[in-house]
Amino acid sequence: MVAVYGDITPKDDYTHPLGPESNFNESMYFNFFDRAKNTGGFLRLGNRANEGYAEMTLVVYQPDGSVLFQYKRPEITDNDAMDAGGMKFEVIDGLQKLHTTYEGRAVYLTDPSQMADPSSAFKNNPHKPVKVDLVHEAAGPAYGSSGANHKVVDPEKEFAKAHYEQHMKVTGTVEIDGVVTQIDGLGLRDHSWGPRYWQAIHRYRWLTINFAPDFGMMVSTIWRDPENRTQGGVVYRGDKMDQIVGVDIDTDFEDNGLFHKDLVAHLKLNTGEQLDVSGKVMGFIPLRNRRSGMVTHVGEGMTEYRCGDAVGYGLSEYLDQVE
């Protein structure tokens, strides 16, 4: 049985009762990276049943730097399943094994930075049929909280009541325009539920890293406002997991100051150990979320990471509220 850090249980892998908040969101996210093929991506579904729709996102990074992308808001009326817009997530064995699929189309971007203007990008680039069929199996412990002791005071300021993550081994296929790529890699998944607005926080940096099936990291630093931030994450090595208690990230950006391309994360662990992790973005796409006149930029980078002699792949996700 997989190790668990926190109060989550295998039943938490399923959907939860729909909360009363208008912005109640239950989301599952799965990323995957096959280092040998320089291919990866992620799938996400966020059920917002009280608002009548789900947020469906697909990103597939190609070895040549091109990206396939799809985003939809398919109609839903309940929170009974993760199944919308051609994407479906199934729990085979709670906290152990899950199945993700997608069948539909995606815009093919040889210059993914075009997605800074989504309307133009979707109109001016070709669309290709995509099929994703992946099995995600536990490679490390599950860690997080069910939110049982979290009291929602103001839903407008919430980002997630409950949240947990887990490093995974990922196998299966990605088919693009009839060309099938076998995937045998690693990744990370997360699952959260509770009221959420993307505009509820000032910014964050989220790094997901897999060096080997028994060596991974998750790094998080979140600014609730410009002056206050939290720092955290985990390092798991074999059957041992250490907490990250200090995070400082030096980042090189493109000339626009928004698209990140290289980083060095300086990490302090609860054991006193310090680690430096460098990251080079191999594939990048800028995404955004808009609400009430606010624009939230989410930069998604498929990233090659190095820590000492270890080399791995993962995602670097940078969220910023754009003034």
What does this protein structure show overall?
- It is a single chain.
- The protein is mainly beta and 323 residues long.
- It has one domain.
- It has an eight-stranded antiparallel barrel with strand order 2-3-4-5-8-9-10-11. It has an eight-stranded antiparallel barrel with strand order 12-13-14-15-16-17-18-19.
- It has one helix at residues 118-124; strands spanning 4-6, 24-34, 39-48, 53-61, 67-72, 82-84, 87-93, 97-109, 127-145, 162-176, 179-195, 203-212, 215-225, 228-237, 240-253, 260-269, 274-291, 294-307, 310-322.
Class computed from helices, strands and strand pairing: mainly beta
Query: What portion of residues is helical?
Result: under 10%
Element-by-element helix/strand order: EEEEEEEEHEEEEEEEEEEE
Total helical segments: 1
Task: Give the strand tally.
Answer: 19
Q: Please, how many domains? A: 1
Q: On the 0-100 scale, what is the average pLDDT?
A: 93
**Order of strands, widest sheet:** 2-3-4-5-8-9-10-11
Entry summary:
The protein is mainly beta and 323 residues long. It contains one helix and 19 strands. The model has no long low-confidence stretch (mean pLDDT 93).
Task: Name the descriptors.
mainly beta, eight-stranded antiparallel β-barrel, 323 residues, globular, 19 strands
Write the layout of secondary structure elements.
Elements: E1 4-6, E2 24-34, E3 39-48, E4 53-61, E5 67-72, E6 82-84, E7 87-93, E8 97-109, H1 118-124, E9 127-145, E10 162-176, E11 179-195, E12 203-212, E13 215-225, E14 228-237, E15 240-253, E16 260-269, E17 274-291, E18 294-307, E19 310-322
Parallel strand pairs: 1-9
Antiparallel strand pairs: 2-3, 2-11, 3-4, 4-5, 5-8, 6-7, 7-8, 8-9, 9-10, 10-11, 12-13, 12-19, 13-14, 14-15, 15-16, 16-17, 17-18, 18-19
